[in-house]
Amino acid sequence: MADCRFILITGGSRSGKSSCALSLAQTVAAQGQAYFIATAQPIDDEMRARIAHHRRQRPPAFQTIEEPLQLCRAVERLDAGAGVVVIDCLTLWISNLMAAGRGDDAILTESENLARLLGAARYRALVVSDEVGSGLVPMDPVGRRFRDLLGWTNQTIGRAADRILMMVAGYPLRVK
After folding, report:
1. Of 1, 12, 41, 54, which residue is the catalytic one?
2. Measured between alpha carbons, how far is residue 83 from residues 7, 34, 38, 156 in Å?
């Protein structure tokens, strides 16, 4: 990570994306405050259990910011002492924005703003997102809309990132 300031980590569900992001972040955490921006919302028992599991996995040195919708605002508010931030994950962020009734143009504008902010940041950023382009075409319009919005968001973030890692069975493959 020494030569990369901004990394997108993508892959399928349970491919090791979050673990990889935390592992990479810990290698530079001593260079400033470590932040973890979580986008999950505890909307049911299953999600509360997932959130609790992720909290247990997170090293105590990370200051957690829970922000399901205003991700750009959370990134803007990081203090000047930030050394590294892990954003986990864009997948839930896009889902949250859709559930909040945001239109496609508004969501894509937020994605572009996030890419711009992270591209200009002085700290290191690791962004986690699911890869949704390798699966079946969803049968319903909401599923197709989600797949499209997350795919376009991943492309936007990927263009701004210094490196893209694709996780496969717990192992990172360098894409960019």
Report:
1. 54
2. 14, 6, 17, 23
